[in-house]
Amino acid sequence: MIESPQFPPLLTGEVVARQTDPFDKAVSQAIAGVDSGTVFYSEAGDVLRAALVLAPETPLEEAIQAVYVAQIGLAESLGALAPPEVPVFFQWPNRIKVNGALCGSVRYAADVSDPRAHPTWLVIGIEVPFIPVHDEPGKNPDETCLLEEGCGDVQPMALLESWAKHTLLWLTYFMESGFERVHKEWRPRCDDLGKEINHPRPGLFVGLDEKGRMLLRQDVMTETVSLIEFAEHT
Question: Which end of the chain has less neighbouring CB within 10 Å, N or C?
Answer without folding.
Answer: N
